[in-house]
Every structure is written in C-alpha cells, then in structure tokens.
Amino acid sequence: MNPVKYLSLGVALLFAVCVQAETRSGLNGMVASRSALAAQIGSKILQQGGNAVDSAVATAFALAVVYPSAGNLGGGGFMMIAMADGRVMAQDNREKAPAAASRDMFLDAKGNVDRNLAVNSLQASGVPGTVAGLLDALTRYGTMTRQQVLAPAIELASKGFPLNDDLAGQFAENLEGFRAHPASLAKFTHDGMPYKAGDVWVQRDLADTLQRIADQGRDGFYKGKVAEQIVKEMQGNNGLITLKDLEQYQPVWREPVHGTYHGYDIWSMPPPSSGGVLLVQMLNMLEPYNLGKLGYGSTAAMHLMIEAQRRAYADRAEYLGDPDFVKVPAATMVSREYAKQRFSDFDPDHATDSTKVGAGKWPEESLQTTHFSVVDKNGNAVAITTTLNRSYGNRIVVPGAGFLMNNEMDDFSSKPNTPNSYGLIGRDANDIQPGKRMLSSMTPTIITRDGKLVMVTGSPGGSTIINTVLEVVVNVLDYGMSADKAVSSPRFHHQWMPDNVRYETGAISAEVAAELAKMGHKGLSGSGFGIGDANTIVRKDGVLEGVSDPRNVGGVAGY
Ligand code: DON
Fold it and tell me: Does the first or last residue of the chain, that is N or C, have fewer Cβ atoms within 10 Å of its Cβ?
C-alpha cells in the first residue's frame, strides 16, 4: 500500500511555530525523527530488507551528518530494542568520565562550579560511546553489514546536501561559539561566512572518519588516526581523554526497566538513565487513580500528575547514578509497593511543598538531544535517544576528524545540590569519578501488550524528557489519543526543584490553573511551546502511525 501522508493541519494551525508537523501511516516500516533526511535513510534501509536495528543504526549515523547539534559520533546515548519474538534489550552507550577526571574538577578557587568550564571546554567531554554502541547493536541484532548501514551517511557527508532553513539558521545562531575553534568555524561556515539555506554542505573530514569506521569497525574510531586526532586536541587544550580511555570504552547491555500499566508492558532505560525508573515510578503512582476517568486536562488529573512528578524527581536527586559505581535502589523505586508508600501523603486537595534543598533554574530550551523511533515490518522496534548534551556539545570539532565533542560531564553533579544546565541537582550518587557514567534523563521507551508492539517513544529536553514521555504515554494509553494528538497536545512539567509548574500554552486552562494555584501549586507559568520533541510511532490495529513532533521540523518516512 502507498503510504498515506497528510499534514496535520489542526496541529499546524495550533502551533504557529511549527513548520513541518508530519504524520504518516503505513503497514510496514516507519521511522520518525527530528531530521526528515535521516528518517528517509532509515526507511530506505527498511525497504532494502533491513530490520529495525539496521535502520536505527543507519539513521543514527545519518543524524551525525544531517543533524549535528545532537546527532553525533562524539557523544553517547541509549537504545531500547524490542524484537517481535519478545526479547527486549537496553543498551547503554553513555559517555564515561575519563580516567583523569576528579570529583571537584569543575570547582573554582572559591569552591563554586565554573559553569563555563563545565560546558565549554574539552574537560567537559566524556569518552564518547555512540560508535561503539551502534556497531555492537548492529553485530548482535542487525542483519546488514557495517558498510551497508554506513553508506548513506558517508554519501551525505562526502557529496553534501542542501541546508534547509532550520540548519542554516542554527549554524548562524551558533557562529560565535564556533569562532573560538578553527576546525569548528571551518566546518560550520563557508570560509567564515554563514551558510545560507540552499547551500550544499559538504563534510569531507567527517566522511573520512565515517569511512574509517565502515572499514575498521570500532577500531576505526577508538584506535589509530581518529583516536589520535581526538587525543591531540585534548592534549593541546587541557582535555582529559587519553588513548587508553578510548580503547577501553565499552557499551553495556543492561536489564531494561520494566513496569506494567493498565495491562500494558512498559520497557525503558535503566540507570545511568533516570528516565525509565522515574517513568515507571510515576505510572505506578498514577495507575490506581485512573486518569482516563478523571478526564484529560481536568484539575484532578493535573494535580495528580504534578504530584507524581514532584515525588519522582525528588528521588532522582537523591538516589540515582551509575549503577556500576553506586548502589541504585532501582528495583525498589519501580515497585508498586514503593509507589504506594511514596504517594501515601498525596492530598487530593492540596499541593505538597517541595521544601528545602536548593533551588535551580528552569532549563534553557534548545536543540540539544534527539530521539527517533523505528519499527520494521516484523514488528521489531528500536527507540534511540542520543546527545552531545548541550546544543552542538562544547562546540569543539576535532581537527581533521570533522565531528563535535560532547559536554556531557555537566550531567554529573559537580557540587552537591547545585543545579546543572537543566536546573537538576544531585548529590553523591552522581558525583564525578573516573570511569563513571553521568546520570541522564533520556527515556527511550517501548510499550507492548501481550507481546505485541503498541508504541515507541522518547524525547530530548534535559530534565523535561521524562515528563514528556510520561505525558505522551498517558495520552495514548489513558486518553486513547492518536499518535498525532498525543504528541502535539501541549505539555507541562514539574521537577520538584524549583517548585514550579511550567507549561506550554493550552496545557492548563485558565480555570484549572486558578484551581491549582488555590491548592498551593506554585509558579504556574504557561507560555509558548517547546517542551520536548517526541518523535513517536504508535501501532493500532496493525497500522503504524508515525509522528514527528510539531514543535520542530522533522520527518517521518515509512511504507
Ligand atoms: O542525558 C541527559 O539527560 C542530558 N544530557 C540530555 C540533554 C538534552 O536532552 C538537551 N535537549 N534538549
């Protein structure tokens, strides 16, 4: 069947900022991504007979070429895979602190966090995990060769592609950040002049690096020329990553977080992400109250969800970190008994105070992380969220190698109770230690029922990621929304500290906001759009509906 494609007009009108809200349905495969080009590549791989893992790996490598603010070789991420035969896997390709990292490395002489050092330096880079993770997943669960899945990315980098308004605009906006680094300026400008939409953007160095990976596998990145290029840049600029750090990097296959919700199976990312644990914890708190009956957007439903968010995020700050370093009580946190106890002080009429521990700032919104969802014709599914942390990472391109380095070290808690880029605070569980992985909020999630795929979702958005995923999930499972509606509906966010409810225009009506304020909810500020970018696929009655989040341009490709 030909894919039925339609622009979601209602959504387009509702979100004046959205340019290419796209929904597509199909019977076979589907890829939903922040980049239309990357989605098309993923879909082509499916049509060539690749499975969801082949497609996801090809899409991820393509994103490193066509969506460089977050698609990456120099960063890391998480991957959930649910095979149609019932196997579910969680892969952690998160960056690790280099061996020379130390707990107080971002503190200045006065003991304050040097924010500039924590995000704009080579010390801010963790040891990249993406390449090792993608190749390992391909070997274990893919069916195609490295060369096959890397070919489209190599072609796009070497031959170039015309920049759209989105990318040309982003490059121009980030020009000042790139200026300090000659290799970054060379990559993102035309001899120092900003690119314009329509210009063909060629990335020769990146094409060479990708070719090395295609030829040599992980050794093409973690050893030899590329590794030497990374280390040379580090050594010249106070960076910590060594050849040994690179050679030793390994992705980790972890037990997925699993919960059930109204008969659905929720599969998501375990620590060092906080995402899966918090998602299941919140769903456990919500299930007994039956959101569907309370009604979408009702005061009772909003109050309930905000209170669940408040408690879950408070636990995040205290307990979560890299399970290879700290004892994370994940099993307890996702148990129904714990949710019952944790929610036992829920007062249906009053907001709880998020007292004490230091306040943070609301996160800045930008284009920092990216999530995409893939489903193939056999019902295998992959959810990948990947990042350089902030937009374009530390904005430092490795000279000669053509890719950006991450600034993921800022996801550690550099100082107890002191907010990071996303206003998140943490303590010992997430302190910096050599070889440790920094805590994440990334929440790639797959939902099944009776062993059959129901939906694939996830989002960028720093601290807001987990609530975005929660809201998309309850929109589908509790409120019966289509994928399009579930993703485009406005979102709200509470992260315990600061004790504020922030929401997109329309997420909370004026009446409900007034009632919530009366109950004691604070800082109810609604404005604009921009919480998350949840590129989602829902399968209903055998039909796949893919949506690229209308908050940004993006694309869905399927057949
Ligand atoms: O892993 C994390 O939680 C963060 N590094 C994610 C950053 C992010 O989502 C920024 N996106 N807008």
Answer: N
The catalytically annotated residue of 59, 242, 369, 387 is 369
What is the Å distance from ligand 1's center to 211 Cα?
28
CA neighbor of 23 nearest in space, from 551, 546, 468: 546
- Domain-located, residue 556: no
**What is the pLDDT confidence band of residue 21, given thresholds at 50, 70 and 90?**
low
CB distance 418 to ligand 1 below 6 Å: no
369 tagged catalytic = yes
> Same domain, yes or no, for 201 and 303?
no
Do residues 240 and 299 share a domain? no
Closest CA to 418 of 96, 121, 108: 108
Quote the domain boundaries for residue 489.
254-368+462-536
Same domain? For 236 and 155 the reply is yes
Contact of 342 with 318, CB cutoff 8 Å: no
Rounded CA separation 324/430 (Å): 11
Buried-exposed string 458-485: b where 16+ CB fall within 10 A, e elsewhere: bbbbbbbbbbbbbbbbbbbbbbebbbbb
Under the banding of pLDDT at 50, 70 and 90, the label for residue 223 is very high
pLDDT in tens, 129-146: 999 999 999 999 999 999
| Sheet strands side by side (includes 445-449) | 4-7, 22-26, 543-548, 536-540, 452-457, 445-449, 264-268, 257-261
